[in-house]
Q: What sequence folds into this?
């Protein structure tokens, strides 16, 4: 599988970086996420770290977006506090993002190279939850 990169939404990266810089404090909130909704709005959120597995910023963002009436997200990025920069989603987030938004684009960074890829490129040969549900009778 060859992953194709797409243009980076720098405004989205800046929004997440701003939230990480201004809202992440201490050990409870260490990551910020920003997503662009289909209608163009930018929605932001922070993680709620807890040793029991508190939700990542990307998962908090899904709920925040829904609370604001944004059910279709096009692009997402996560940025770490203390100037850690763009951080790729963890495995759990990759699976949830794929299930909620199978056409989602994700901004990632590797070796100081920021790029945008489809969520399916981050989770190849993935399990698609909806494909394994029993049909309602």
A:
């Amino acid at each position: 599988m060859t992953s194709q990169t797409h243009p980076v939404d720098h405004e989205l990266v800046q929004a997440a970086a701003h939230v990480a810089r201004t809202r992440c404090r201490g050990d409870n909130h260490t990551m910020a996420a920003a997503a662009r909704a289909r209608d163009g709005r930018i929605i932001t959120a922070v993680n709620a770290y807890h040793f029991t597995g508190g939700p990542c910023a990307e998962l908090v963002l899904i709920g925040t977006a829904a609370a604001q009436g944004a059910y279709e997200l096009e692009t997402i990025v996560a940025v770490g506090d203390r100037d850690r920069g763009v951080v790729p989603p963890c495995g759990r987030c990759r699976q949830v993002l794929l299930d909620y938004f199978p056409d989602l684009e994700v901004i990632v960074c590797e070796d100081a190279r920021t790029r945008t890829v489809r969520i399916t490129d981050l989770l190849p040969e993935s399990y698609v939850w909806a494909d394994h549900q029993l049909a309602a009778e």
Observations:
- The longest strand covers residues 73-80.
- The CA atoms of residues 16 and 73 lie 15 Å apart.
- DSSP finds four helices and six strands in the chain.
